[in-house]
Design goal:
single chain; 5-stranded parallel β-sheet; 550 residues
Length: 550
């Protein structure tokens, strides 16, 4: 920051008021101000190295001094008290007084910080320097503490003083030290000069300085950009012209805050699908979606102002795709989550689970994950529901989604895992396909228990093992004693057994086996058992499998 001063009213509005009143009472004041402005502009053109503003102020002060009584109506700065300030007698232990002053002091501090932020940000954008607001606030705090100890007013960043220093070529904090020493010198030596220094000349110097700092290219850029930023710029500009500078800056900050709340309270929630190369997820409105799994991406934080919008958008997606009982939420754009966001996530999980589905998350950041752990949300969701992004779809495809729907009901191939999946559109939909898998109850047998039975029981006592996967899956790996009876064949033709031995059904993970068990029961077979976990569990247990070669 290039300077500190008292917050002050708008000097431009003061000059405008003087000009409007000039025909009646202040013609001389207006003439002095306009003359000082013209002289500053002239000196900048013909002799830019000379301190034009200082020369104009000295000449204006001299004119008021020489005019004497004829300049009695000219507004002047007034006498500058000389001498060093003494240590103030502060009532540090008067708690009632401290309580009475605390609210006003807090308001002054807030306004001062707002003005300091606006001034420093404006100058930093022109000097291309990195701005550290924390350090700026620390400096302003120390300045106010020392000012109070010596009976001074509350101080803050001043755009007028900082702009003058910037136009004069100041680049470091030494400029503020030199300026402070110079002000102290003036106070101790030439304090009475303030009785003749016209305020209109000071206003003229500040107007010229501010006018030269206008970045027209940046203004055009803002006007062509986002409408909200353009409105903030116009309102703040009008406020600086016709209102107090402090209030104008505060209005600009408040409008920025309102715009931020409006933007963050309605983050985009979009449906994404894999791209054509299955490398990334993208928003493709015209691309087909999976009838079982919905994938949404939240592009904003889960805080109290946004959770209602996010939940409504996700529920709208679910309403448009009623068959999508499972939801995968991509959270790599979610940096912050509060308790309202936690409640929203739990509500979504509850809604999907009540409908026989579930919710899974990917790319949960450290901050949101920590809050989920501390609030018990992660326990409610389940640790296994936080998936790795690279393996999320593969895990859901093989362990969660119903392959019956994929093969017999889904006409599209959305994921990489769908590309080689056999699709049986020739089959008429069976009522069994519409029954939820979780609603089909059937006894199960562990892979090792079945292995032991096959090794020890006599051939007449061994169960009939039916593999209900598609032929290509069967040829790739199957239990040696199993017979291939694809679910598609079972749906189309039924099943005929040569004897009445118990039947054991096996598929990849167990979901198709449940479908097949329901069909066999409808056909009159009652002694039906499933391999718990299917071929995945069989192979995980390290049991031998057979492979067929064409």
């Amino acid at each position: 920051m290039l300077g500190l001063s008292l917050p002050r009213t708008n000097v431009l509005s003061g000059l405008i008021n003087s000009l409007l009143a000039a025909p009646e009472t202040h013609l001389l004041t207006a003439a002095i101000g306009l003359g000082a402005m013209a002289l500053i502009l002239l000196l900048r053109r013909v002799a830019p190295r000379l301190p034009g503003a200082l020369i104009a102020l000295l000449l204006a002060t001299a004119a008021v001094f020489l005019l004497g009584e004829r300049a009695a109506g000219v507004a002047v700065l007034g006498p500058i008290s000389g001498g060093l300030p003494s240590l103030a007698a502060l009532p540090l232990f008067d708690l009632q007084l401290l309580s009475d002053l605390s609210t006003g002091a807090l308001a002054l501090a807030a306004i001062g910080l707002v003005q300091t932020t606006a001034v420093s940000r404006s100058l930093a954008s022109q000097t291309h320097q990195r701005l550290d607001n924390n350090q700026e606030f620390v400096g302003q705090g120390f300045a106010n503490v020392l000012s109070g100890l010596f009976g001074g007013y509350a101080t803050s960043g001043s755009f007028t003083i900082s702009a003058v220093k910037f136009r004069a070529g100041a680049q470091t904090r030494v400029a503020s030290i030199v300026a402070s020493l110079f002000v102290l010198l003036v106070m101790l030596t030439v304090g009475p000069i303030g009785n003749y220094m016209p305020v209109s000349a000071l206003a003229a110097a500040l107007i010229v300085t501010a006018y030269n700092m206008i970045d027209r290219a940046e203004i055009r850029r803002i006007l062509r950009g986002a409408p909200g930023d353009a409105i903030i710029m116009v309102v703040t500009f009008l406020g600086t012209l016709f209102l107090n500078l402090d209030f104008a800056v505060l209005v600009g900050i408040l409008l920025s805050f309102v715009l931020y709340v409006m933007r963050t309270s309605a983050p985009r929630v979009q449906v994404v699908v894999p791209d054509s190369d299955f490398r990334h997820f993208a928003h493709r409105p015209d691309a087909p979606v999976c009838p079982q799994l919905g994938i949404v991406e939240i592009q904003g934080d889960l805080y109290f102002g946004a959770v209602n919008h996010i939940e409504e958008e996700i529920l709208h997606v679910a309403a448009r795709n009623p068959g999508q009982r499972f939801l995968l939420i991509r959270m790599h754009h979610v940096n912050q989550v509060d308790f309202s966001g936690i409640h929203m996530l739990e509500s979504l999980v509850r809604t999907y689970r009540d409908g026989g589905g579930d919710v899974f998350l990917v790319r949960v950041g450290p901050g949101p994950r920590r809050l989920m752990e501390m609030t018990g949300c992660l326990t409610y969701l389940g640790q296994d529901h936080l998936l790795d992004e690279d393996d999320a779809v593969q895990h859901l495809f093989h362990h969660v989604l119903d392959p019956v729907v994929c093969i017999y009901e889904c006409p599209v191939r959305v994921f990489r895992e769908c590309q080689n999946l056999p699709k049986r559109f020739d089959l008429i939909a069976s009522p069994q396909l519409g029954r939820p898998v979780a609603a089909i109850a059937c006894p199960v047998v562990a892979p090792r228990e079945l292995w032991h039975t096959l090794r020890t029981a006599s051939p007449a006592q061994r169960p009939t093992i039916l593999d209900v996967r598609e032929p290509r899956e069967f040829r790739r790996s199957h239990i040696a004693e199993a017979q291939s009876l694809p679910l598609s064949t079972l749906l189309a033709q039924g099943a005929v057994m040569a004897d009445d031995r118990p039947v054991v059904l096996v598929c990849q993970s167990g979901r198709r086996s449940r479908r097949a068990a329901a069909i066999l029961r409808d056909l009159g077979f009652h002694d039906v058992t499933l391999v718990d976990g299917g071929m995945q569990a069989w192979e995980t247990a390290g049991l031998l499998t057979a492979v067929e070669f064409e």
